[in-house]
Design brief:
Strand order of the largest sheet: 1-2-3-4
Distance between the termini: 32 Å
Order of helices and strands: EEEEH
Helix content: under 10%
Number of helices: 1
Radius of gyration: 13 Å
Largest sheet: 4 strands, antiparallel
Length: about 70
């Protein structure tokens, strides 16, 4: 099985927190793979404004514009 992640460690990412767009840096990545191997979930730890957030890959975006379009 080959896994292609949405982001790499060190990438800039955008997400929502308390109804505000936030820019951060991906600092850690964990991947959970289903026993059957037909799906997986990317769990990112993101550092922003001196805090760390745990986010699922589908809730992270490469630009503020893409984040806002998703709302």
């Amino acid at each position: 099985m080959t896994i292609g992640t949405k982001f790499n460690i060190g990438d800039e990412v955008w997400f929502m927190d308390k109804n505000k767009p936030i820019k951060g840096i991906a600092i850690k990545l964990d991947i959970d793979i289903a026993r059957t191997g037909d799906w997986y979930i990317e769990h990112y730890k993101v550092e922003a404004n001196g805090f760390q957030f745990c986010k699922i890959g589908q809730n992270l975006f490469p630009t503020k514009e893409e984040l806002l379009k998703s709302l």
